[in-house]
Design a protein that fits this description.
Shape: globular
Mean pLDDT: 88
Helix content: 55-70%
Distance between the termini: 33 Å
Strand content: 5-15%
Radius of gyration: 19 Å
Number of helices: 10
CATH class of the largest domain: Mainly Alpha
Number of strands: 3
Order of helices and strands: HHHHHHHHHEEEH
């Protein structure tokens, strides 16, 4: 399985343990004795890979669109590193076939879930970075993300604008955003906001209201487009 994963990633690991960790869903670690909680699965590598992916895609966008300003580049970046895009690229690459999950979760189809696939994509990028440096991660990102990069000749609209235009185009009331909760300490708040359009509702969470609204709008667009 790991040989297949190395072929997918185009990299031979000097530290095979990193690859194993990147491909281990947290369900596979449940109940294992002697393993500290939160270790062994790909969650820590996902955290690292998220940052590495953002850097590499930002670098790439700067090269591809030298005349664009920060706002347009930011919208491109947000789309390319979004969960639906990551999940689709992971599935196209075949990462779902090499993920280690608990037997029960496997039967439940966890390998097909967008959240699991997106997390695995970030985790393998983190593993590539730790094992082979930025160049190893860069080679994989540029190869696997090329179709998504080429597929957006114009900067995408932000999710809130796209959702508003979707509603207006159908003669519907504008999206209604409601703050569901505000948790966390003052220096690190956590906002949960819902948005409703055409009788359908989605929620988003983030460290500020605007980002939470964006996340909610993106989630609802996905539901309306399904």
């Amino acid at each position: 399985m790991y040989a297949q994963a190395e072929q997918i990633l185009g990299h031979r690991f000097a530290q095979p343990g990193l690859l194993k960790e990147a491909l281990t869903h947290r369900s596979a670690m449940h109940g294992q004795r002697g393993v500290p909680k939160g270790t062994g699965s790909n969650e820590r590598l996902e955290f690292i890979g998220d940052r590495v992916l953002g850097l590499l895609v930002a670098e790439w966008l700067g090269e591809r669109f030298p005349g664009e300003q920060e706002g347009a580049l930011g919208r491109r970046l947000a789309l390319l590193v979004s969960q639906p895009v990551l999940a689709d690229i992971a599935e196209q690459a075949g990462l779902n076939a090499v993920l280690t999950v608990a037997p029960g979760e496997s039967r439940a189809g966890v390998r097909k879930r967008a959240t699991v696939l997106a997390d695995a994509m970030e985790a393998v990028i983190g593993a590539l970075y730790l094992d082979g440096g930025l160049e190893a991660a860069r080679l994989f990102v540029r190869r696997s993300f090329a179709p998504a990069m080429d597929g957006q000749p114009q900067p995408p609209k932000d999710a809130k604008t796209a959702l508003q235009e979707w509603a207006q185009g159908r003669g519907l009331p504008l999206p209604n955003y409601v703050m569901v909760s505000r948790d966390g300490p003052p220096h690190a708040p956590d906002f949960t906001i819902s948005v409703t359009v055409a009788g359908q509702t989605a929620t988003g969470r983030a460290g500020n209201k605007r980002a939470a609204e964006m996340a909610a709008a993106e989630d609802l667009i996905g539901k309306l487009s399904a």
